[in-house]
Structure formats: structure tokens, C-alpha cells
Amino acid sequence: MTPTRIILLGAHHPHFYVRVGILQARTDIEIIGFWEQDVVLAAKIEKRLRIPRFPSEHELVSTVFDIAFVHPLDHDNPRLALLAASNGAKGLLLEKPGATHPEHLFKLVEQLKQWPDLVVEWGWEMHYAETMDFVRNLVRRNALGQITTSRWHGGTPSGGAMEIWQRQKNTLGGFLYMDASHTLEVIVDVFGLPQSVSASIRKLPKGEKHPIVSCWYDMHQEELDPATTEFAVGDLPYEDIGSVILEYETHNVVADFTAWEPTDWCADWGIDIYGTNGAFHGVLNAPRGEVVLRSSKAGYARGVTKMSTEKPQGASNQVGYYTRQIELFLQRVNSRAMTECADADNQVKLMKVLDAIYKSAKERRFIDVL
Q1: Gfo/Idh/MocA-like oxidoreductase C-terminal domain spans which residues (predicted)?
Q2: Are 309 and 247 part of one and the same domain?
Q3: Residue of 148, 185, 140, 177 whose CA lies nearest to 284
Q4: Contacts of the segment 219-224: beta carbons below 8 A, 24+ positions apart
Q5: Chain segment 266-293, per-residue pLDDT in tens
Q6: Last residue of a domain, which of 95, 116, 149?
Q7: Phi/psi at 244 (nearest 5 deg)?
Q8: Where a domain ends, among 43, 72, 95?
């Protein structure tokens, strides 16, 4: 079987390393090479991953390839996506959120329609979390009865919003836009577009300094940017917290976010959904969840049903979600399989919600989602 040929455009996001590791472990993949604008970072990647390095993005897309994985800083996502598409890409996997402003993303999606057979995916790996499979099944099969309200939480560990990709200049926002939107993506996936949103997005009064968590420092310890690893609440260039009410026709969703979680990535990304027949309580990763029903429904028994997990309870399955995303993405590209995915339709809906959230916070009123 001819291997699927992949090029790597940009390498500024930490998800680049996870995905490359997964691709390198597959026997049906040939990585043609990578390009990264930052020459210091590019030299480190070449030495660390031993992947051919191309001197320019144009030389890389001039090779024979099938799929482009696009992992630059957000401002360059649209340009590189269009460059790959116009040079024959069959599939694009773009790191999230995919653009520095929603209008740039909307424009990109319209431009990509020039290639109707192009398969496009955005890098929301938590879309593929086990907990989300469980939640989708509960909601779509109406096991909880009429849903009246739900509560979702997301964020970053202490000061994680100081990472380079979450504090870029001239973006719509900080960690809520760049990372906490993982939570908004799965909300929109489960419930669709809300009718309106009301939001508070705040920088908090400055407090004491705390050690910050950063994937960037872990990967590139000899090149710290900024030069210190301690910051205080209020030091972030953008928001410290966000609170959002999403109004649907039949229920409300309440979501809250902090850039200062005292736990590790995703450990407190909680979900609570309440319906007339039952409730669900769970966490995205390490995956756990249980549903409590008043009456048996949709294959779920009365009382408490705990969600089964691929790994022992309490063990992270984060790499498993990246792996599943890549596997299903390759199926969509190579066999045109229709699978559950974080595609352009979901991405446009998410960006509409993010646009309304920041507008609501600025104008201090409910904003209709159009």
C-alpha cells in the first residue's frame, strides 16, 4: 500500500509534537518534511525529531504530498492553509483556534470552498474524548429527559495563558479564545448554536506571584520567553477569567473559565447536565463520568451508571484522543468515510459563539448569535 504523504507547515504549537509522534509510529505514513519560520526553533526540531527540514514553506508545498498538518502561530494559519490547498492538498489538519479573529476564520472557510473535495479538520482533540462520546449519546438519545440546564468548566493551569500562543498581539483574546474554547467547542458540538450569549471576561486585580505551568518551557528550556516563570493574577496580557451564559430555546448552559487552575491540564474540566429524568456528572480528562436516572431510558438503567474507560480510572487518555482524531481524519481523507469530526461546520459555529462572547463582555449585554 502506498503510504499517505504528509507535510508539516509550522511547528509553534505544542500539539505539533504529540501529533508528529503519533504519525512517526504509523507504518502507513511518510512524513515528507517540515518548515518552521523561527530558525532557532526549526534547528531544535530537526535535531530532536530527525525530520527533513525545508528552507521555505513554498519549497515544501512543491513536493508531492497528500495532507498538510498546519501548526504555526494563529495569525499564519489561514495563509498556510490556503498555500497547501492551492498546491494539491487532499486534507488539512489546522491547529486551533485557527485564526487570530473570527472574521479571518470565516473568510478562510469560504476560500477553502474552492476545493470541494478537500477534507478539513481543526485541532480540537478533546472532541474525541471518551467523556464526550458518553455525553453525546445521552443527549442525542434523550436519556436525561428534557434538559433544563448544564454547567461546564475549562481553563489552563496556573498562569498557562503566558504561553507564547496564548498571548499573541492583536488577537481577539487570550486563554479563553485560545484554549478554554476547547470547552466551548464541545458545548457547541453537543447542543448546537445558542440563540444568545451573555459574558463577563475580566482581568483581575493583581495578586501574589505564582509559578506558571507551560508546555513551551517544558519543550524548550534553554529559550525561555518571557525570562521568568513566575507571574501574578492580573499580569496576563489578556483575561484571567471568563463567565458565560448561553441561552438555548429549551435550556441554559453556564460555562466558566480560569487561567489559574491549581491542577494539571484538563483535570478540572467538569461537566454537569441536568434533565427531567436524570443528571450527568463528569470530567473530560482523566475521563470519568456517571449518569443518574429516575427511570430507565435509551438503554441506560434506573439509578447510577458509571462510564467505562479505556484506561484505569484516573489515568489520562489525552494521547488517545489525538490518536483517534488522526485515525478518523485519515479515514476521511483516504476513503471519504463520514465520521464524527471537528470539521468546518463546527468551527464556524464555535467562532460565532466566541465572537458573541467577547462582544457581550465588551458591551455588557446579551448578544444574539447569528
Answers
A1: 137-367
A2: yes
A3: 185
A4: 219/14, 219/17, 220/41, 220/44, 223/40
A5: 999 999 999 999 999 999 999 999 999 9
A6: 95
A7: -135, 135
A8: 95
Prediction pTM value? 0.95
Pairing assessment for the beta strands 4-9 and 270-275 based on DSSP bridges: unpaired
Residue 51 in grid coordinates:
525530520
CA geometry: angle 213, 217, 220, nearest 5 deg: 160
Q: How many CB atoms lie within 10 A of CB 260?
A: 23
Domain count, the chain: 2
CA dist 313 to 283, 307, 310, 317, 324, Å?
12, 10, 9, 10, 19
In this structure, the dihedral spanned by the alpha carbons of residues 299, 305, 306 and 308, taken in order and rounded to 10 degrees, is: -20
Domain span holding position 27: 4-95
Query: Which phi and psi angles does 113 have, rounded to 5°?
Result: -65, -10
What's 72's domain CATH number?
A: 3.40.50.720
In a domain, 280, yes or no: yes
What sections of the chain are H helices per DSSP? 15-24, 39-49, 57-61, 77-85, 102-112, 130-140, 175, 181-191, 215-219, 318-335, 344-363
CB atoms within 10 A of CB 330: 22
Determine the residue type at 356: A
DSSP codes of every residue in 18-62: HHHHHHHT-TTEEEEEEE-S-HHHHHHHHHHH--PBPS-HHHHHT
**142 and 77 inside one domain:** no
Q: What is the pLDDT of residues 189-216, one digit of tens each?
A: 999 999 999 999 999 999 999 888 876 6
Q: Which three cell numbers stand for residue 79?
A: 495563509
The residue whose grid cell reads 484506561 is: 311
